[in-house]
Task: inverse folding
């Protein structure tokens, strides 16, 4: 089921574009749409870069994965200074 949902989410933009081109044959894409598309792509890239920097760890740190501690408690992941 999850694979079907992922496939549907992947195919939907392409199907929408093909439907739009089918309903508007021969018309050029309006400049406003191109600018909105470019702005959306830039916002997406900016968000991805910001997220990458916000979750990165320091270069001199070591990632310690989550562990199962005493009493069955989960100790969350963390970064520690390199020894």
Result:
């Amino acid at each position: 089921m999850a694979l079907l949902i992922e496939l549907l989410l992947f195919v939907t933009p392409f199907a929408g574009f093909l439907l739009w081109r089918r309903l508007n044959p021969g018309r050029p894409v309006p400049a406003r749409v191109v600018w909105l598309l470019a702005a959306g792509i830039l916002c997406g890239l900016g968000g991805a870069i910001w997220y990458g920097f916000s979750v990165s760890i320091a270069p001199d740190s070591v990632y310690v994965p989550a562990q199962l501690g005493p009493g069955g408690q989960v100790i969350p992941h963390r970064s520690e200074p390199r020894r």
Summary: The two ends are 45 Å apart (CA to CA). Residues 30-55 form one domain. Strands lie at 61-64, 67-68, 74-75, 78-81.
